[in-house]
UniProtKB/TrEMBL annotation:
Protein function: Catalyzes the reversible adenylation of nicotinate mononucleotide (NaMN) to nicotinic acid adenine dinucleotide (NaAD).
All copies of domain Cytidyltransferase-like, residue ranges: 10-171
Keyword Nucleotidyltransferase attributed: yes
A Pfam family hit: CTP_transf_like
GO BP annotations listed: NAD+ biosynthetic process
Pathway(s) served: Cofactor biosynthesis; NAD(+) biosynthesis; deamido-NAD(+) from nicotinate D-ribonucleotide: step 1/1
Protein name: Probable nicotinate-nucleotide adenylyltransferase
Catalytic reaction list: nicotinate beta-D-ribonucleotide + ATP + H(+) = deamido-NAD(+) + diphosphate
Family according to the record: Belongs to the NadD family.
Amino acid sequence: MGERGQRIGIMGGTFDPIHNGHLVAASEVADRFGLDEVVFVPTGQPWQKGRQAVTPAEDRYLMTVIATASNPRFTVSRVDIDRPGPTYTVDTLRDLRAVYGPDAELFFITGADAVEKMLSWKDAERMFELARFVGVTRPGFELSSAHLPEDAVSLVEIPAMAISSTACRARVVAGKPVWYLVPDGVVQYIAKRGLYAG
Ligand SMILES: Nc1ncnc2c1ncn2[C@@H]1O[C@H](COP(=O)(O)OP(=O)(O)OP(=O)(O)O)[C@@H](O)[C@H]1O
Ligand SMILES: O=C(O)c1ccc[n+]([C@@H]2O[C@H](COP(=O)([O-])O)[C@@H](O)[C@H]2O)c1
């Protein structure tokens, strides 16, 4: 306390599994905004994902820890997986504000697909008051903030990573490699736990 407020990025996601697109997004925004830390926050129950079951939270959490362990500025928070019920970003931001204190500046990072849907998120108006939002480019999606409150979201172009968790899961089901799409330790964790094998 007493120091200048820390600049904290928040990278929320289902991370089923975490892939290099997530890591590049966090790294680029950290560089662009001079962030001190990026906290990766695996979701508890992602209520807007169109499928019934996601992989157990502990597996998604551990993959996120493995993927981020080598970067001194990346950390992982359990706030969303430890909170019962559907995951809402408005709650994530309240919880992380309590952790980092009133002086911290919070930057919530999302890809272009998430930016499209943001107005449908719970208490969106309140949510925009609790953090700055940063939307990053993603192949296959238009990045625009025209539908959002003015100045709520900053847009950032990042190197195009045509990777999705859906495609990674489908590759594992089909017996294809996910090397170099996800970090090495995550490839090994998926194999060790037999995730996505069908
Ligand atoms: N390749 C990518 N480039 C930029 N942003 C991405 C990329 N993949 C995911 N994101 C962003 O990361 C956040 C978390 O994404 P999520 O965990 O849902 O991954 P996903 O690949 O979109 O998953 P799925 O294919 O299962 O829907 C979202 O804000 C999403 O827009
Ligand atoms: O707050 C909401 O209502 C809300 C609705 C959909 C997604 N989110 C958050 O957006 C982030 C990316 O979500 P997803 O579903 O693309 O993995 C993650 O942190 C989610 O908790 C939040």
